[in-house]
Amino acid sequence: MGTSVPQATIIRQAGEGERRWFAGGGTFTMKATSEETNGTLALFEDDLVRGKVTPLHQHPTFEETMYVLDGELLVHVDGEDHRVATGGVIIFARGVPHAFMCISETARILAIQTPALLSFYLDASDAVTSPEQANRPPDFDRLRAAAERSEDIELLGPPPFAPAGS
User: Fold this and answer.
1) If both were cysteines, with which of 54, 128, 131, 139 could 19 make a disulfide (CB 3.0 to 4.6 Å apart)?
2) By residue range, what is the domain housing residue 52?
């Protein structure tokens, strides 16, 4: 059986990669896409602000790894909340319900999906070409609609956290 490998070596410097506004709030920068890696993985840097929260969800078709580059998250998995700060890592197995919330003023995470299945994220985002586009408020109707069209994510319910700062 053959092994899938990237089409070519990928080198991206700080600030390089397609920047996208995400309907769930915030922006992310694509560092490696599924097309560039022949579907083996997708890699993006996610910029978060205090209170950015995900609904309870699961990924039935891929694993998700999040490495906290800066800041602190509150991560909900298996009915428990865990604080994960700079240098910490979270690896969500397929089908495990989870959610997270940014609890520091800002945070940056590196997210890795294996195998690469970005259709949901691309459907629920737009390319950023100006600061105004990057600073739009979340569009949860668009987020839900993109999830309904996707086999990569299942929204299971609202965020399992009290609002940030409460």
Assistant:
1) 128
2) 19-128+139-152
